[in-house]
Every structure is written in structure tokens, then in C-alpha cells.
Write a structure and sequence with these properties.
The structure holds two protein chains of two kinds. By secondary structure, chain A is of the alpha/beta class. By secondary structure, chain B is of the alpha/beta class. Classes of the chains: A alpha/beta, B alpha/beta.
């Protein structure tokens, strides 16, 4: 983050002054939000609540966090969750090596410190005067959560795929989510310097606890409608021609109505659009779709299902895009 | 008693009801239209009640959050309000759908009243005719009869909304209360007086006017019933469904009707998910206070063996290994549907489960359950095996030939069936061998205990080789058995 210390405290709040401002701001960094998304970001700032983003893979959950960070010019601190993630990796860790090194150094110097004392209690008293050097901030290795709280000027904290973590870890997050503070047993509670904007994402591989959900705004991002998807493609793949864009969006929208194992997501649509631009396609034709379908669909069975219907689907897509069949 | 003709307020309630709660320090925003004076305004409170009753779980804290959120965005923009409340209140895709429905229903009702009022307001009160005005729902002090004769629909609608509110319509719970509430509303509007007025008209030989009034009263009755029905949908659907679900949970599975299937499916899935969630986390439990000295030393080698990091002993809890044999023959066909449904749900929940279906002979159905969606899976199994007459001896022999070698002392075997083998050889010796190999055998029988051993039932012959034999014919039974199973495995 550029000169974090100097950033005016109100800048984020100022940029998030209204729902429209959020919408325009996100669009300016290349993320076309639906109205719900901008409302969620707006409310997250004004209610000081984290957003829990759920939805199928590839609809732009993680991208949202990145875009919010870019738009607000804040550091993005990302924590990827996985099974077995614990506080040593998420919150803080003591710098054991450094502690060990210091013990070695102190061993040599200890004679100088307590040399003159006669009795054990007196020596202990002298040592106590030094305080708890080993468990202080100097020996603390901050991990993502702690870094987000200590970041001067605020930060965007992305807790990615929270559903992959253990239930215990979820409980551990509650403190930071509701009070923006964490407790380190040896030191005490650490409060946020500046309340970070927190986004959690989940693919719903398991149900999250009620306690967690209660503390968050719950945003469900589904597949976008044709209009929104068109705008997203326009913003992400600027080189694409308008007619092809409409056609391919119509095609993908229809593909989503089929009975597939994994429906193509926005990210796949973007990839496909890029591929088509690279291939200098002017319009969709059956052969081209057939050759590039593996960009959209990731399962062999799905490709088989779709292959049978390519002709009708392209035909319909042309019609819907308002092009001559 | 006069009632203010205000709409069920969308505009902030001016009545200053509710405790004067402190304003929360919120970032100010320019141009917030219509911020309510209290924290929880009346329409929001009522809406939360409606939301709860359609089955969205709204805790008190979420209610407060909703109020704060509404304060930030204001009531002025309906779509923003909807998005906002949806973000705060609805926490699953299902709840989002319920919420959308409920929001539209609730606020449509609202906007109707508002439109009505808009058309009424500018009108000057009409000249009083000779009717006595006792009706409570007065549109500007006019009597109900007058309004009816003038056919002033807007005023009538407003009066009806007001009367409905006074009669506590939001407390309606069951469809049987419909008539009661419709009657109450009409009474409050002053229907008795209208009836008296009508009599008076008839006596005065004004038959035409009397007939007209009578027609209008009929129409008014219909409207009242409509209104009650809408409110029933809004406020009571959750209750009735809950009631129905409770009923379903303890109904005998064989007695269930086709129309309940969909609901059952949801219940079964929820149950399986709950069981899976409850027992998934007990798999790895840390043994507190038992230092794993060997691994601790190894981990701290880098620091010269000084134990900076301690490693504690862990107890690995095995996932239950389950094999389920499900009877799908004609005698238990009604039951088998649900058993299969449950198997299917369980298959999603537990990873290591193998399922078999049998009637005259036995096949493995794990693959079908895993790869197909539930409807087709069940149909496929029933088609392959179902409705035949069962032969337990034969099926057990099939199992022994094909899968006995996979049974270890960690395997739990569940048999679902009525043990009625149509007087074929029960081959109890196979079950005996099975019981020696397996960790345990659980037999779930849909028949009542008193029917065991009667006719062709071989239940008592099999019983000695089973660890547990129990009646299982409702969803509750099923849940209890499976819960015990998972607990023991943990």
C-alpha cells in the first residue's frame, strides 16, 4: 500500500458514500457488480460487519475482495483456509529461532547481570526487573489475521474458502469478526488499528455455523443474467466485438440451462471469450464451439452432453443475439 | 373509535410507538430519505414477524442489525431495502428464496393500502345521510353503509386494513381460523349496523337500495375472506408447515402419501446432513495432557532438542464402516422407498458405506446411489429388484458369495426388512457366520414387535445372531438408530 501511514482515515468511508458510488468505483477497477453486491459492500462499511460471500465456483467471489481492495486503495490480506489450518498459521507464531538465539546470548551475559547478588531471591528480583522479554511484540510473527488488524490505514481481509477449514477454526474466527480484536494469551487483546473490511468466501461444501453466519452480511452471488454478463465480458475482454460478445453470452446462458455436472461460470465465460478473440473468431460456428468447448466445460461427461446440442444452441444464441440465423 | 387512515406505513411511522431507543452512532449519509424516529419501527417489526413465520430464522441480534441497516439505507427505495434486508436476514439460498417471496407479499399488501389512501385523501367527506355511524373503520367519519352505497372502494379497503390490524390478524396460525378472523374484521368495520340499516331500508320500502346494499355486503365478505387468506399465507405458513413436518416425522413410513414425498425428501436430507455434521468433527480428537515424547523430540531437533514445540497424542477415530442390506420386496415396498431415500442421503453423508438391495436375490446398489440423482436412483433400484417376493436365504447366500470377504471386525451391518421370506429356507447359519465376522449386526424391522414370528416371519430365528433388533418405521426411529450407530463408531 502506498504510504499507508498518511492515508486519510476517512478516504475509504468517503469512497463508499453511497451505493451508486460503490457501483461506479468497482466498475472503475474492472469489476461489474450487481446491485446486491454494491449494496453489500456499502453496508459492510457502514454497519462495520464482515460479508460472507457464497456462490458457485468462478462467479467472482475472490475477485470481489481484490477489486474492493484495489478500489479503496487498501492492502489486500488474504488467508486461504484448508483443513487443519490453526491459529499458529492464521494469527501469530512466536519466533522460536530468535528466542533461542537470544537465550544463547543472554546465557553469556547473565553472569554480568546477577554477578553481584548473593542469594537466589535477590538474583530473581534482578531478573524480574527485565520483564517478559521473550513473549513480547518483538518475538511475535504476525500471520494474516493479526497483520490485518495491525495494518495502519486499514486493510481488506479476505478469508478464502472458509468452508474448507475445521469447525473449531470457525469458532476461533468469531472474536475477530464481531469485535475486530484477537486475544493472544501471553500479551492480551489486540484491537484493530483501523477496522478492516472483511470478506469471507465459501463454496458451501459444508454448512457454516449459525454463530458465524449471524455475524456476517450474507451475500449470495449466483450466475449473472445476460445483460450483466455482457457488461462483465466487455470490461474484462475489451478486444471482443459486440456481436460476438452477445452471441457468446447467449450461448453460455443457454448452456447453463442444461443438466450438467458443473455449470460454466463467469470465469469460464471470460476465458472462452479470450480464446475466441485469440482465434480471431467473428461469430460462433459449430466447429469452433466444438473445438473450444473444453474451455467452458471441465467434465468429459458434460462435454458429451453439450456436444450433442451444439448446433441448436448456437442457432438459438444467434437468434437471441439478434443476428441472422 | 376512530382509526387514523394512514397506510400500513412505509413512510416512517409517526406514532412514536416503541421505546425511544438511543440513536446509534452511524456514519451519516446525505439524502437518506425518511429515517424513522425509533430504532425498530413498526412496519419493520411486523415484517420480521412475517419473515419468522415463513421459516426464516431471525434472531434478536439480527433484528437489531436489520434496524441499523434500514437506518442507513432508509425506506425510500424499495429495491435497496429488499437487498439490504436480504443481506442481513436470509442466510442460505433457501432462505433467500423464502425472503424474496415474503418481502413481495408483505410489501405488496402495503402498497395496495397506500394507493388506496392516495385516491381517498383529497376527497371532501360526503354529506352524511340518515345512517347512524357506528362502524369503527370510518373513512373520514362516514358510516360503513354510506361507504358501501357510494361504492367507495378505496375507503373500504383502508377501513378493512385498519380493522384487520385491530383484530390482531398477525396472530392467525391455522387455516381453520379463517372464518373467525373474517367475521371479526367485518364486526369491527360495523357490519351489524349495516345489517340494521338494510332492515330499515326494507321497512321503508326502498327495495332497490336495500338489494344494492345486500350485494355490496356480499362483496365485502368476499374481500374480507381474501384479506384473511393473504395474511394467513404471510403469517402462518411456517406454523402449518412446521406442524405438518412434525406429523410426518412420527408418521409410519408405509402410510405416507405420495404428495408428502417431496417434503419427506427434504426432511430426510436435512436429517442425514445433521447426523453427518454432528459426527464428522469427532473423528480427530486430541487427547489432552498426553505428550507424544517421540514426535516432540523429533520436531524440536532443529533447536537442539529444546522442546519449543510440543506435540500431543491424538486419538484417531475411525469412520464407521457400514454395509446396509435393504429389502425392496413387495411386502415392504412402501417402506423401501424411504429406506432407499435414507440410504441415499446417508451415502452423501458417510463416505464409506456400501448399500445392497434384495428381494429374491441381492445386488449392490452403491454405484447407483452415488452417481444418479435421488429420483432416478430409487426408480432404477425398484425397477431392478423391487416388488418381487423376498427370499432371505437366497439373498444372504448372494451376500456371502460376493461380499463376505469384505466384512471385517470393524464393519457394522444393517439389515432393513420384515424378515418374511415366504416360507423359504431362512439360512440362519449364514447370518451366524456373518455375525462372527462383523463388528455387529443391526436389524431394523418395520413391523411392530407383536407381528414378529407370526405367519412366515423368521424374525425370531434371525434374532439370536443380531446385536440389535428394533422396530423402525418412522423417520424418528431411523434417525435414532443411525445416530446411535455413529456415536458408537466414534
Amino acid at each position: 500500500m502506498p504510504d499507508a501511514g498518511v492515508a486519510p482515515a476517512g478516504s475509504a468511508a468517503h469512497k463508499l458514500a453511497s451505493i451508486e458510488a460503490v457501483e461506479l468505483g468497482l466498475a472503475s477497477v474492472g469489476y461489474i457488480p450487481s446491485r446486491q453486491i454494491s449494496t453489500a459492500v456499502y453496508l459492510a462499511q457502514h454497519l462495520q460487519k464482515p460479508i460472507l460471500v457464497e456462490g458457485p465456483a468462478g462467479v467472482g467471489k475472490t475477485e470481489l475482495a481484490k477489486s474492493v481492495a484495489a478500489f479503496l486503495d487498501l492492502t489486500l490480506i488474504r488467508m486461504q483456509c484448508y483443513e487443519g489450518l490453526d491459529e499458529a498459521k492464521a494469527l501469530y507464531e512466536w519466533k522460536y529461532g530468535k528466542q533461542l538465539l537470544y537465550t544463547q546470548i543472554l546465557k553469556d551475559k547473565i553472569g554480568d547481570v546477577i554477578g553481584a547478588t548473593e542469594s537466589l531471591p535477590a538474583a530473581l528480583d534482578k531478573l524480574h526487573a527485565f520483564g517478559d522479554i521473550f513473549f513480547s511484540h518483538q518475538f511475535l510473527e504476525p500471520r494474516p489475521l493479526l497483520r490485518a488488524l495491525q495494518q495502519p490505514g486499514g486493510a481488506v481481509l479476505l478469508i478464502d474458502e472458509i468452508d474448507k477449514s475445521d469447525q473449531e477454526f470457525e469458532a476461533f474466527l468469531l472474536e475477530i469478526l464481531s469485535d475486530y480484536q484477537v486475544t493472544i494469551p501471553e500479551i492480551g487483546s489486540v484491537h484493530a488499528v483501523e477496522t478492516p473490511i472483511v470478506l469471507l468466501t465459501s463454496n458451501s461444501t459444508r454448512d457454516l455455523g449459525d454463530a458465524l453466519k449471524r455475524r456476517c452480511l450474507h451475500l449470495h452471488i449466483g450466475f449473472p443474467d445476460a445483460k450483466l454478463e455482457g457488461r462483465i465480458i466487455e470490461s474484462r475482454v475489451p478486444g471482443i466485438e459486440k456481436s460476438l460478445r452477445r452471441e457468446l453470452v447467449a450461448f453460455v446462458q443457454q448452456l447453463r440451462t442444461l443438466d450438467l455436472k458443473k455449470l460454466p461460470s463467469v470465469s469460464e465465460t471470460i476465458d472462452w471469450a479470450r480464446v475466441l478473440v485469440l482465434l480471431h473468431a467473428a461469430a460462433l460456428d459449430t466447429e469452433m464451439v466444438h473445438d473450444t468447448l473444453n474451455v467452458l466445460l471441465k467434465f468429459e461427461a458434460d462435454i458429451e452432453v453439450a456436444n450433442k446440442q451444439i448446433a441448436t444452441l448456437t442457432q438459438k444464441a444467434r437468434q437471441e443475439a439478434g443476428l441472422p440465423g | 373509535m376512530s382509526v387514523d387512515t394512514g397506510p400500513l406505513p412505509l413512510a416512517p411511522s409517526r406514532k412514536g410507538r416503541g421505546r425511544p431507543e438511543p440513536e446509534l452512532p452511524l456514519p451519516s449519509r446525505e439524502g437518506v430519505g425518511g429515517r424513522g424516529p425509533g430504532l425498530t419501527s413498526e412496519p419493520l417489526r411486523q415484517f420480521l414477524q412475517a419473515a419468522r413465520s415463513v421459516g426464516i430464522r431471525v434472531s434478536a441480534a439480527e433484528g437489531i442489525d436489520a434496524a441499523r441497516a434500514v437506518q442507513v439505507v432508509g425506506y425510500s427505495d424499495r429495491t435497496v431495502l429488499k437487498d439490504t434486508l436480504s443481506l442481513v436476514l436470509a442466510k442460505t439460498p433457501d432462505e433467500k428464496n423464502l425472503f424474496d417471496e415474503c418481502f413481495d407479499l408483505y410489501f405488496r399488501r402495503d402498497s395496495l393500502a397506500q394507493e388506496d389512501e392516495a385516491t381517498t385523501d383529497p376527497r371532501a367527506p360526503t354529506v352524511q345521510s340518515g345512517f347512524g355511524g357506528e362502524g369503527s373503520g370510518g373513512g373520514g367519519g362516514r358510516s360503513l353503509s354510506q361507504m358501501l352505497l357510494d361504492d367507495d372502494r378505496a375507503a373500504l379497503a383502508t377501513a378493512m386494513e385498519a380493522a384487520a390490524r385491530e383484530s390482531g390478524i398477525q396472530n392467525i396460525r391455522f387455516f381453520t381460523q379463517k372464518n373467525l378472523y373474517a367475521r371479526r374484521i367485518l364486526d369491527r368495520m360495523g357490519l351489524r349496523q349495516v345489517e340494521r340499516d338494510m332492515e330499515a331500508l326494507r321497512k321503508d320500502d326502498q327495495q332497490v337500495a336495500a338489494d344494492r346494499l345486500e350485494n355490496r355486503i356480499e362483496a365485502l365478505r368476499d374481500q374480507a375472506r381474501d384479506l384473511v387468506e393473504r395474511n394467513l399465507l404471510l403469517f402462518a405458513r411456517g406454523e402449518t408447515e412446521k406442524f405438518r413436518e412434525e406429523l410426518l416425522k412420527s408418521a409410519r413410513l408405509s402410510n405416507l402419501e405420495r404428495r408428502d414425498l417431496e417434503r419427506m425428501r427434504v426432511l430426510v436430507r436435512a436429517m442425514a446432513k445433521r447426523l453427518a455434521a454432528r459426527y464428522a468433527k469427532t473423528r480427530r480428537r486430541r487427547l489432552r495432557g498426553h505428550l507424544d515424547a517421540r514426535r516432540t523430540l523429533r520436531k524440536n531437533m532443529g533447536w537442539g532438542g529444546i522442546p519449543f514445540v510440543t506435540v500431543w497424542k491424538q486419538k484417531r477415530i475411525e469412520k464407521p464402516r457400514v454395509m446396509v442390506l435393504c429389502d425392496v420386496s413387495g411386502s415392504v415396498a412402501a417402506m423401501a422407498q424411504f429406506l432407499l431415500m435414507f440410504l441415499y442421503a446417508l451415502n452423501e453423508a458417510l463416505k464409506d458405506i456400501r448399500s445392497f438391495a434384495f428381494a429374491g436375490s441381492l445386488i449392490e446398489v452403491s454405484d447407483i446411489l452415488e452417481s444418479e440423482p435421488i429420483e432416478t436412483a430409487i426408480a432404477k433400484i425398484m425397477q431392478a429388484m423391487g416388488f418381487g417376493s423376498s427370499n432371505y436365504g437366497n439373498s444372504l447366500a448372494d451376500f456371502e458369495d460376493g461380499w463376505m470377504r469384505l466384512v471385517s471386525n470393524k464393519t457394522t451391518i444393517i439389515i432393513l426388512g420384515d424378515a418374511r421370506g415366504n416360507r423359504t429356507d431362512p439360512r440362519t447359519e449364514i447370518l451366524q457366520r456373518l455375525s462372527q465376522r462383523a463388528k455387529r449386526i443391526i436389524w431394523l424391522n418395520p413391523e411392530f414387535r407383536s407381528a414378529w414370528g407370526t405367519g412366515d416371519s423368521d424374525m425370531f430365528r434371525y434374532k439370536p445372531y443380531c446385536n440389535v433388533v428394533t422396530v423402525c418405521n418412522t423417520l424418528r426411529h431411523l434417525e435414532r438408530v443411525v445416530s446411535d450407530l455413529l456415536k458408537d463408531a466414534a
